[in-house]
């Protein structure tokens, strides 16, 4: 690990941030921005070599040597738990958790835990990681949790009867559901964290030119590739994540959904507290968390 940054300057000096999926795209750009503000930044990536290379890039581009890399495949609950243990061992305090990792897959895949891949990576991984790191965040309060969702949440519907898409799978529907789940998790967690000094907000980063969906694209995704030059750059897509992680203007704001650094109204169903509580308990069961771990 990189030693603590002594003499760091900037509004995030003395703060420690963990960003999942920080080896490229929005995550890496968020890492550069927050490191440039003086934070110690940890990033995660599936491949350790690539994660280390990204950490070097972030350090060079931000001018901040305090950048760490953690290797973990967040589709595996064992690796999520290993990541949490490594982060807790490395960081005596954790001021900001940015749940950035996510993706789109056109065809149904099953993880090593026997779960549908999109739901596992986009929702269950941040749900589990956040809960495992929650005590450290509380101990570091005031602290922040930032969940990267998508405007696709507006088209989402939580199908409690077929969460895993075992009966009827559609890549876009699975993605939309997972992004709605991000928002509902954000709102439910904010209610559970009331008075703790830890805030949690979700965001839509915009339509950003990244390798999103490249592993298993739909025909539409492939056809849209030439249009990527008209999309936001990763740095532009990271603006709202960076704002939610660092701005003093929203220090006390929690349980909101943002786009372009502005609070927005999310999917009507995201405000259903009964459904959000049900999703929480279903998710906890799927990742093996007991009430003692998250109440």
What order do the helices and strands come in, and which of them pair?
Blueprint: E1 16-19, H1 25-36, E2 40-45, H2 48-62, E3 67-71, H3 77-90, E4 96-99, H4 117-139, E5 143-148, H5 171-192, E6 198-204, H6 219-224, H7 234-237, H8 239-246, E7 257-259, E8 262-264, H9 273-287, H10 291-294
Parallel strand pairs: 1-2, 1-4, 2-3, 4-5, 5-6, 6-7
Antiparallel strand pairs: 7-8
Give the mean pLDDT: 91
Spatial shape = globular
Number of helices: 10
What is the total tally of β strands?
8
Report the radius of gyration as a whole number of Å.
18 Å
- Helix/strand-derived category reads alpha/beta
Largest sheet: 8 strands, mixed
Poorly predicted regions are 2-7, 209-214, 221-225
* CATH fold field value: Rossmann fold
**Spatial gap, N to C terminus:** 32 Å
State the name of the first-level CATH class.
Alpha Beta
Please indicate the percent range of residues in DSSP E strands (runs of 2 or more). Answer: 5-15%
Helix content: 40-55%
CATH architecture: 3-Layer(aba) Sandwich
**Count of the separate structural domains:** 1
Structure characterization notes:
This protein is 42% helix and 13% strand. With 295 residues, the protein is an alpha/beta fold. The chain has one domain (16-220, 241-289): NAD(P)-binding Rossmann-like Domain (Rossmann fold), CATH 3.40.50.720. Strands 3-2-1-4-5-6-7-8 form an eight-stranded mixed beta sheet, sandwiched between helices. Strand 4 (96-99), helix 4 (117-139) and strand 5 (143-148) form a beta-alpha-beta unit. Helix 1 (25-36) packs across helix 2, helix 3 runs parallel beside helix 4 and helix 5 crosses helix 9 (273-287). The protein is globular and about 50 Å long. The two termini are 32 Å apart.
